[in-house]
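input
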Amino acid sequence: MPPRNRRTTPQPQLNEAARLSDQLQAAGFTKRDIARIIDRDPSLVSQFHTRHKGAAFVPALTRVLAAVQTAGITDTSELAAIAAPHITRRSTAEGTRARVRTKAVLITPAGTGTGRAGTQAIASGSTRLRTLIAEAARQNLRLAFTVRLPKSGYVLPSGSRTDSPGIRRDVIQRTDHTEERSYGSSATGGFDARDFAQRTDQTGGDVTAAIHQWLVETGRIHPQARIVHLEIRTWRPRR
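output
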């Protein structure tokens, strides 16, 4: 008996942004890395495949992929600098620049909140994190943060108990010679958000500078070290 012809559903063709994203992932980058490079939320990178978005990022991703393949550049900060001049904003029907939808900074009723800043946001002082810190201070919450910078920028060696005692999260080392380290946790009590809100006010709202200043004052990084990624986390202390 001859085999039946089975109908197969054709696979949707990838758009150019999705194709470039796949090539970057094949080169070792994650969706989160790609999102940092184009200074957008990782969910948008996923929508290159599911909702055929990303046309505005094709010129930037093309140049990033060329930098990876021809120059061997793997540092996401350098790639972000390459991408930035080629990212254009969408236009409205009236011809004006469309607003970029960004993830709102939110603190839940339980007091938990998270905010992140990539390369471009850090260059402008991570000001969008100021709202999170200010609200955490108003609610008397605790605060912790994770920073990423070149390994040579740290004073203390990786895994040092003096650097960040009691933190269970491992130090994350990356192939671009940067390293992520976490400071504060619910287990150790974290930091008073009011202190960092005051520090941020003293630096004119520059969250990057406030965190950098604390790290230098406490002997954790060299003054010339440059933060390339920053994450703030909050929670309500147990009474």
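quick obs: The mean pLDDT is 83.
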